[in-house]
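dude i think i finally got it to work??
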Amino acid sequence: MNRIKVVNGNEAAALAVKMSSPDVIAAYPITPQSQLVEYLGQYVADDELDASMSEVESEHSAMSILQGASLAGGRTFTATSSQGLALMYEPYFRTPTLRLPVVMAIVNREMISPQTVWGGPQDSLTLRDAGWIQIYVESNQEIFDAIVQAFRIAEDEDILLPVNVCYDGFYLSHLTEPIELPPADDVAEFLPPYEPDHILLDPDDVMSVDPLTPGHLLMEYRRRHMEAQQRALQVIPQVDEEYAGLTGRSWGGLTYSYRMQDAEVALVTLGSMTGAARVAVDNLRDEGRKVGLLKIRVLRPFPATEVLCALQDKRAYAVIDRNVSFGWGSGILHTEVRAALSGKNIPSLNYIGGLGGEDLTVQMLQDAINELVQLDCEAVDAPCRWLHNPQRSGDR
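look at this
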């Protein structure tokens, strides 16, 4: 029987890890991720989780330890945020290129400077092309479900790539809400023990890992890595569908559509802002506006086909970004969506807001939709807009 538990996002993540039965956990605490490490350490200390908990001196060491543990055949987990992810940069790149199925939660936090500890996905989005699969979630329930699914995806013999489950710092990590926990036996059936046969370190059979690689072999590594990422576009929805059969909950696989079937215009979101966007859509539907919502759930590999199918018949769309792409003068998600719709010339607006932990309110999103409805269909290259909270005064 499923049970309900009221938890914050970090505890939801920790419960998912506990029920996934990892062999090795290595993580260094950093705000707003610290609670997650503390919960896991407590589970191990209380004999609720049979895992090796490595107390490391840095995030660089955490990922390096998990590389060895994964090569030795272990199921592995870590978590970090912001500057911790930056310190992990070298082994973070090495993990996917060695095809190691590590699962890591990134509790999204803005990067410095100016100094900030508040939520924002600039940290993980900046590393979107490091070769990891990246899943972005909107609620504590989805945190739990996505982490359990992430182990299945990462360890699939056709994938064998590490997976990030990214959730907004403070808005989810410290938000308390009820989640539904499936029976442990059901999770164990869904996620059997990891038993790799492709590579396994053995002290009795010495081997070299990651020696100096000539160019022709590196080309082959990259090709197979990219092919595995593209295969994940089929595996992720399959895993979500199977999980739905177990729990009754589906998150849409790669994307999630809400009231899109007859929508004339659409709002595109990523992460926890989706909840407020759903309310905004409902409010405007009550006023007779034909608006819909498309949540991008998986950013890498990018679900270009699903985005194209969802938006190609819309009169216009708006992308809400809680990040910036300095090279394009826009948000990162808007650039990705525009690439998927290349050649369609569908008018679009890009809004940047919520940086540094600022709220993206229902009213702000409704105002964005109202502006979108009035958009001149010829204005394909409209400049990006900045969403400001009217309750805040002055330029900062």
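The mean pLDDT is 94.
im so relieved honestly
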